[in-house]
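Fig. S4 source data, part A: sequence.
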Amino acid sequence: MELKNKIVWITGASSGIGEALCYQLNKMGARLIISSRNREALYHVKNNCKINPLDVHVLPLDLENTDSLKDVTNEAIKIFNKIDIVIHSGGISQRSLALETELSVAQRLMNVNFWGTVALTQHLLPSMLSKKTGHIVIISSLVGKFGTKFRSAYSASKHALHGYFDSLRSEIGPAIKITIVCPGFIKTNVTINALTADGSKQNSMDEAQANGMPAEECASQIIKAILTGKEEVYIGGKEKYGVLLKRFLPGLFSKIVKKAKVT
């Protein structure tokens, strides 16, 4: 599968993994629609796309405002008359204990990470199905496969994505591909913007995140998974082996994760 001239819509495109994907896909000749809440940051990303910036279109959106996403999706489709690939990279993380986290914070995490992604997908799918082609890429997390401390609602929102998109894959057949990406510790600002128990931002970077894989390397591995049509891929350092440990040695995994440094 070639990505040159493919129409790729990326949410969460103004920073982190989404931003890194923009630059690499632009170099590969893809035609981009880039979205997030931060219009100014999106134009910064657009200006940094050096290969034909006229093929990079800014389309702000707010995943938490699900009522607006039908109109935004229609606008995205009109730009190039189709979407070949949508990359759901938008989302927020969490750094708080479950019992201390306000329910409104947990609900916001679900609204942005799960419901926003689902709503956007449901509005976009009819167009892909009518053309009998498309690729949906979901940036989940390793904690979409197992839970750790300080991530209860965040982990729940990512687990929900797996349940929804695994089910969707079984319903829509082979014409529309679905790839679920599970990154571990990636060096981005995700922990700086993570929500604490009262909904305020953490405003600091975790040590594990600071020492994580560069976003550019993560983006390269995501693009490889897209090109090869992977259904699910795990990206990161040794933390990614937690998926196998959880599956085959759950008791041992439980003991390890209770002691693991995850911030």
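Fig. S4 source data, part B ends here. Residues 103-131 form the longest helix (29 residues).
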